[in-house]
Specification:
heterodimer, A: mainly alpha, Ammonium transporter fold, globular, B: alpha/beta, Rossmann fold, Ubiquitin-like (UB roll), six-stranded mixed sheet, five-stranded mixed sheet, 11 helices, 30% helix
């Protein structure tokens, strides 16, 4: 007799929660490589500090909730590595530490830990520090200028193109530099080609869904195309709005976070579109230049509602399909008789 | 889904029978020639031989009677075998093709249908030999699509409905019952799994124990899990020396597996929702079962679940989603007088 009840199905797909999270970690590595290329070893140091504080906060929270920490749970690592990428490389070390601890201890664990949190921890952490220290978070060093890990930082910090957009000015950057992310901005999220590669890798590995990022980017591009806020051509407006900050990064890595996004393909579309609209509205009428994280937190609260309401639609669809099948079968029998 | 049907699917079908097997005949004055038999007599022979359809465990004569009453237009021989490792329908169909086709023609006569088909699963990728387009003059139709394919068969033949679906093994037994007046005393079983040294399809006597079958094929390792039936829907066997194979047993699988506990937690990826063939929401159904909120299960239409197990199969947290849903469904049906009929 066996001690454990063995339940069907008896074979399982190899992919696990661990391999999914590992894929996200692998996809983050090229971004850290770019950040190191642009800003030197300080980018790596920021990532390491944030990672360590996230893991430490996670272990403490797990112990406080009376459980054992799971060495196969990589979600805290992902949160810890996501946060510094959205910050400038010149930010003091206490900013990513605060963000990571806030993300784990306030946004994630009070709701029940892994898989139970309503709001995206990385977005919550970033939103918290950008409210606390907006001057530190929204002033950026110039790229291709290696920053020291400790000691004096260069005093010359610049505004990002997103700031110029907020003021209604046309940013003065070369198109190619905009594509390659060679402008003063968040340390790891500006190179669009690397981001696109990571996105393709994650899609190919099925670590994330495609619906939410697609709807999000489509919606933001549509709004930027229809209502440009700076005096340039419509397509240039789309390019500036999408490429000047954390928007694409948030769409790929934060919005598609499995825990906080809806479960149905259709509700993911609606969710992504809502997040896109909220991002652009906050950009047009809000007080900050990087708004994707705030918009994401806003639509996170609609996740359950979206799934529940769209389930009504699917109930009708299922009934219609079943009814159609039965109808067709009856028609055949009637004809035969 | 990897099918892992090789090498069993292409190996010869071996007999593994008790000594009294050849003498298991029944007395009947009916003719052994197909042309001289009336439809009712064929059904009578199926009843005398005690043939059971391996698809659903229903007696064959009752299925034939029902089909004749419904005036079916097509008889489809089901050799779909959509679960991995299992090839106990398609292998006898290929190896005993004359008998299978003969049985199919007998079933056509018994039900008064106009057409017959073999149905096989298309997504078997690891085959050495090709499955022929026609077998003994009967068209072989392929059922396309991802794993739960068997329940979709009725839709694939919707143009020619109503149809009767009868398992290939039952048809082989029907042929033998008519030609030799032989009682169904054997069943076709796949013995496979990563512990089995010599995976193959056996024609085993009914009443053989699971242990005997596994010994016949040889165990390469100590199995941690012995399964009666397919790997997706089968039942774990607790005591292989006291469990016997019956007419509806399609496979005996032995697996060695890593039993380390990994304590994964649901990360809400929604893969179970994406893959559900009935377009249900296993994620929320499982959540509400865990929280004990059974009143929500009606809204999520748990009764439409066909129990294919795909949600558990894809789950990256290795949760027992399908098993939970099955248990909740069973508990509901015990309490209530009935729900929606199963789709398909």
């Amino acid at each position: 007799m066996q001690a454990k009840e063995l339940k069907a199905p008896h074979i399982r797909l190899k992919d696990s929660a661990r391999s999914t999270m590992l894929d996200v970690l692998i996809a983050l590595l090229p971004l850290y490589f770019m950040a190191t290329y642009f800003y030197g070893a300080r980018a790596l140091a920021l990532g390491g500090v944030s990672l360590l504080s996230a893991v430490a906060a996670d272990v403490i929270c797990v112990f406080l909730s009376g459980r054992r920490p799971n060495p196969r749970d990589f979600s805290a690592l992902v949160t810890g590595l996501l946060i510094p990428l959205m910050l400038p490389a010149s930010v003091p070390y206490y900013v990513p530490v605060t963000a990571a601890v806030f993300a784990i201890a306030v946004v994630k664990h009070p709701f029940g830990g892994v898989g139970q949190n309503i709001f995206n921890p990385a977005a919550g952490g970033f939103a918290f520090v950008s409210v606390c220290w907006p001057s530190l978070v929204f002033s950026y060093p110039q790229p291709m200028f290696s920053l020291p890990i400790t000691g004096e930082l260069p005093a010359r910090l610049a505004e990002s193109p997103a700031h110029a957009l907020m003021l209604g000015a046309v940013p003065t950057i070369d198109k190619l530099d905009l594509m390659l992310g060679k402008f003063a901005g968040p340390m790891g999220v500006t190179n669009i080609l690397v981001l696109a590669t990571c996105f393709l890798y994650l899609l190919f590995r099925r670590a994330i869904n495609w619906q939410a990022p697609a709807a999000f980017l489509g919606m933001t591009a549509a709004i930027a195309y229809l209502f440009p806020r700076i005096p340039v051509s419509r397509s240039e407006s789309v390019a500036f709005e999408l490429l000047s900050g954390t928007l694409v990064f948030a769409g790929i890595f934060l919005l598609s976070d499995p825990v906080t996004s809806p479960k149905r393909g259709l509700s993911r579309f609606v969710y992504g579109a809502l997040a896109g609209a909220a991002t652009m509205l906050l950009r047009y009428y809000g007080g900050f230049e990087q708004t994707a994280a705030f918009a994401l937190l806003l639509v996170n609260s609609f996740t359950l509602l979206l799934d529940h309401e769209l389930e009504r639609l699917f109930r009708i669809v299922r009934r219609a399909v079943l009814g159609f099948r039965a109808y067709r079968r009856n028609q055949r029998i009637i004809k035969k008789v | 889904m990897e099918q892992y049907k090789e090498p069993a699917i292409n190996r010869p079908l071996r007999e593994f029978v008790n000594s009294n097997y050849p003498g298991m005949l029944f007395e009947s004055s009916l003719s052994t020639e197909e042309d001289e038999l009336e439809p009712q007599e064929i059904i009578r022979l199926a009843e005398l031989a005690g043939i059971v359809d391996e698809r659903d465990g229903e007696p064959l004569y009752r299925k034939l009677q029902k089909a004749a009453q419904q005036q079916v237009r097509v008889v489809v021989a089901d050799a779909i075998d959509d679960e991995p490792y299992v090839s106990s329908q398609i292998n006898p169909m290929l190896k005993c093709a004359p008998q299978a086709a003969g049985g199919l023609r007998l079933a056509m006569k018994a039900t008064g249908a106009g057409k017959v088909y073999f149905a096989v699963y298309k997504n078997i990728t690891d085959l050495v030999h090709r499955i022929p387009k026609t077998l003994e003059g009967v068209t072989v139709k392929r059922i396309r699509g991802r794993y739960p394919a068997e329940f979709r068969t009725t839709d694939d033949f919707a143009k020619e409905a109503p149809l009767a679906l009868i398992g290939v093994c039952a048809l082989i037994h029907l042929y033998r019952a008519v030609k030799e007046h032989r009682i169904q005393s054997s069943c076709f079983v796949t013995v496979a799994g990563n512990c089995v040294a010599n995976p193959m399809n056996l024609e085993a006597s009914v009443g053989m124990t699971v242990d005997q079958l596994l010994e016949r094929c040889g165990l390469a390792d100590d199995p941690g899990r012995i399964i009666i039936g397919g790997p997706m829907t089968g039942v774990a066997c607790q005591d292989p020396s006291a469990t016997v194979v019956g007419p509806a047993t399609r496979a005996v699988l032995a697996f060695k597996e890593d039993v380390k506990e990994r304590r994964y937690q649901c990360i809400g990826c929604g893969k179970c929702v994406d893959c559900c063939p009935e377009n249900l929401t296993p994620f929320y159904i499982n959540k509400y079962i865990e929280r004990g909120r059974m009143e929500m299960l009606d809204f999520y239409e748990i009764d439409r679940c066909i129990g294919c197990g795909t949600c558990s199969y894809v789950c990256p947290a290795k949760l027992d989603v399908a098993a939970n849903i099955k248990a909740a469904k069973a508990a509901r049906q015990k309490n209530s007088t009935g729900g929606l009929p199963d789709a398909g």
